[in-house]
Amino acid sequence: MKGSKTGPSSKDVAGGHGQVPDIEIEDCSFAFNGAPVLTDVNLRIYHGDFVAIIGPNGGGKTTLVKLMLGLLKPKKGKVMLLGDEPAKTRCRVGYMPQYSTGEKGFPITVLEVALLGRLGYTGMGCRFSREDKEAALRVLKLVGMEELQHKRIDDLSGGQIQRTLLARALVSDPEVLFLDEPMASIDIDGQTMLFDLLGKLNEEITILFVTHDVGLLSKYIKSVICVNETVFFHHEPKITHDMASLLMGRAESCPVEMVAHGLPHRVLGRHKGH
User: Fold this and answer.
1) Which residue would you say has higher pLDDT here, 189 or 227?
2) Among 83, 137, 192, 219, which is most buried by a count of CB atoms within 10 Å?
3) Cα–Cα distance between 23 and 103 in angstroms, integer?
């Protein structure tokens, strides 16, 4: 990838030959009030990838996702989502926002939350059809929330709310799924259950998983993006030396072993050619 601070070229990525990337960012930079947030970003994400987007708070993870979705426009460079401008294709994408305690204060049921994901089909002010309700029930069953469909969300646990929000993101049958800190307010058992579900979903859709906690890397992760103004993309579920330097804010870093969901993740030494 031209100008990319990543490992292998996108042409060397398995599945990349002759395939249009689900997400392509070329020479992108973004600044807020003149202060650089992201600089010279280049990456390609192909269908079927499961990408962990990691980095410190304030490092630019949310900005990167908003650029991918077309909610922000880069100062320079190009962003493509599913082969076209994001504004034209983001209706084919699901988004699970970061959980907020404010969600619990809204008087709405689990089924009604899931149905909100169909507004792209019905439009605001329109009635939901039987097809919409069947789609909502199907995804609620998938995430294990069908029996709680009539419960108000203020009666749910944090993990149940996260699964409800995931159902809302899935009800439009997305080709790409974005999740922002989906493991917040969930215990270890709940995290494992949700990761297992995401692993199954990844058999059909591309998943991008945003987290500031590198301890939440799972066995299902296939690639890692590290964001802290600079972006490093590694096409393996490992954290490289350069990523560790970004995360720790220093030029050099000793090798580190991290255990996530029972599996070790190694911080590697420098790659040849870096």
Assistant:
1) 227
2) 137
3) 30
